[in-house]
Amino acid sequence: MSLSRAETLINKLISNKLTGEELSELxxxxxxxxxxxxxxxxxxIYFDYLLRQNQPNGPGENGHSQSENDST
Length: 72
Fold this sequence. Notes:
The chain is an all-alpha fold. The protein has 4 helices and no strands. The longest helix is centred in the middle third of the chain and has 18 residues, at 36-53.
């Protein structure tokens, strides 16, 4: 599946590869009522990705995280 223009611009912004023209396009999109949802969705996808990357190793066997299982 190809990325939307909003996702492409957000990804370029995050990787510091956004041109001046693309920055202007991104800012126009963020300020445009009809395009705001696209940018909001693209940012939500990125933030969800960051949250998943920063999760601990996941729940233990009994459904609790490893730190909850430690009694020390």
